[in-house]
Amino acid sequence: MTPAESLSLLFGLAGLLNPFALLIGAALGWYADARAKLIIAAFAAAALSVLIDASLNLSGVRPIGGYDGGPLAVLPFRFVGALLIAMFVYGIRKRARRKRK
Predict the structure, then answer these.
(1) pLDDT (tens digit, 9 = 90+) per residue, 41-92?
(2) 15: closest CA among 79, 93, 62?
(3) Measured at the alpha carbon of residue 33, what is the angle toward residues 30 and 38, in degrees to the nearest 5?
(4) Are 25 and 85 in contact (CB under 8 A)?
(5) What's the whole-model pTM score?
(6) Residue 22: its H or E element
(7) Residues 67 and 4: beta-carbon distance below 8 Å
(8) Residue 45: its pLDDT value, please?
(9) What is the spatial distance between Cα 45 and Cα 51, in angstroms, rounded to a whole number?
């Protein structure tokens, strides 16, 4: 695998834009009640998405994004993606709560 292929993989569906990490990060960001909890939410989303990928791989389903490396190689990129979406959703919810009051 060339470095260009690795970067597109890490910044694509296997890494930064992994749908499992983004959905879990968004859900945990919605229920976070403090900004400090967003880092915990992002780590949990990244770890859960790696576990989902590993379980899919063990059941014979190819991981999303189609990477051949280990799932821990994409963990930091999933963490960043989940953190960004959690911060975005947290901000939306905070703004909506402010307008309601």
Answers:
(1) 999 999 999 999 888 888 988 877 777 667 788 899 999 999 999 999 999 9
(2) 79
(3) 65
(4) yes
(5) 0.88
(6) helix 19-31
(7) no
(8) 97
(9) 10
Distance CA 9, CA 13 (A): 7
Encoded amino acid at 94, one letter? K
| CA-wise closest residue to 29 among 80, 76, 92, 77 | 92
If you compute the radius of gyration of the chain from its CA atoms, what whole number of angstroms results?
Answer: 15
Give the closest residue to 45 by CA, choosing from 69, 67, 76, 68: 76
What residue type is assigned to position 55 of the chain? S
Task: Say whether 62 sits in a helix, a strand or coil.
Answer: coil
Q: How far is the C-alpha of 32 from the C-alpha of 58, rounded, in Å?
A: 32
Do 15 and 50 form a contact (C-beta atoms < 8 A)?
Answer: no
CB 72 within 8 A of CB 46: no
Torsion angle of the four alpha carbons 78, 84, 85, 91, in this order, in degrees rounded to the nearest 10: 160
